[in-house]
Amino acid sequence: MRAILFTQENTDGFNAIEQKIHNYLLTKVGENGFKYSADCWSDSANALIHNDSLVMPIDESEPRYTYILESLTQEEKDLIEDINIV
After folding, report:
1. Which residues pair with 35 in a beta bridge?
2. What's the pTM value of the predicted model, to 2 decimals?
């Protein structure tokens, strides 16, 4: 899985990027008029925990993957890493 990891204390940073992605996705319309969103997809209160870090999944198999990358700065993209969730 690819993800951006945040310390468990950095919920503000996690939520800020989630909101940024969500706002960008709202501007996109998918197949058959589908509206993209990041709500419930990624939120610090419900995030997976991996090695004491909050996990924001960046799932390459999702149709919105390209849009998610478009919404991120290069600095944010550089934070994406491969992790193994068991």
Report:
1. 29
2. 0.83
